[in-house]
Amino acid sequence: MPRKIEKNAKSKEEALRLAAEEFGVSIEELSYTVEREIGKGILGRLLGREVIISAWITKEAQEEEQLRNAREQRRQVRERKAAESAKKTDAPKQNNKNTEIEKPPIKKEQPAAKKEQPVKKQAAVQTSDGETEKQQETSKQQEQAPKKERNREVTERSVSDAQYFAENVIHMMGLPEAKVEASNGGSAVDVEVSGERMGLLIGKRGDTLDAVQYLTSLYVNREKNSYIKVNIDTEGYRAKREETLIKLAHSLERRVLRERKPVTLEPMSPNERRIIHSALQDNDRIKTYSVGEEPNRKVVVALQD
Length: 305
Prior knowledge:
The protein has helices at residues 12-23, 41-47, 59-102, 109-126, 133-150, 156-172, 198-202, 207-220, 237-259, 270-280, and strands at residues 5-9, 30-38, 50-57, 179-184, 188-194, 229-234, 263-264, 286-291, 298-303. By secondary structure, the protein is an alpha+beta fold. The strands form three sheets. Strands 1-3-2 form a three-stranded antiparallel sheet.
């Protein structure tokens, strides 16, 4: 039996929207029955109207989810078999390499290490030109690897700088009672904010929280060649938002496979676009790319050509 949930709202449409958000699917993928309607006619105008519905995911959507899980299992089996066959073919090659290394002196390994640096620089230059969103996101992840070597170690000074700046900015935003705690997260400075009216700090889709994090990062890394990452969060918003985006991505994945038409999402930040791309990258039948210019750049989910 499919899992059912009850939702009540002022209208049937609003109750369906709330049910779809809780399931993490689109409204079109839900079936429902109206359990009760309160306040029709004159009574409704006096006391207010309320609709109670029972909603569940349609059988078609559940079957598509099962198919997707089956495809994922088959993909894992293929990867495991490919890895096993690769080990078998690599074994004699490694022996050949060992015999070749014994003849020449070890100095021949030095030129190989020198060639790696210009290759990385060239890849970084290519990402500044126009590329598809997946290529840009991959290039950004590759560029982050060398940056880790240049990252400064998180110190007490960097933690206190983040605490001082974030606390002052948040208090000046009209949240004087907010409690700001900065700590050493190992590879970054983690700042946790708690208190009332945290929705004001988060803003629409986390825009305000991202802005405060960006400004704090600039202050912590002022006049320095190396870099320390700063993470600012409140009430576990970052993790909740990522979970919501992953559910949305899989809902749109099922919709595109069913309707065979591309779907364009609302404008998102680069980090949120990366979450959508990552959630759908293992489906061979789906492709994702971005269109538009910042700050109105959007992700498109479509069928593979």
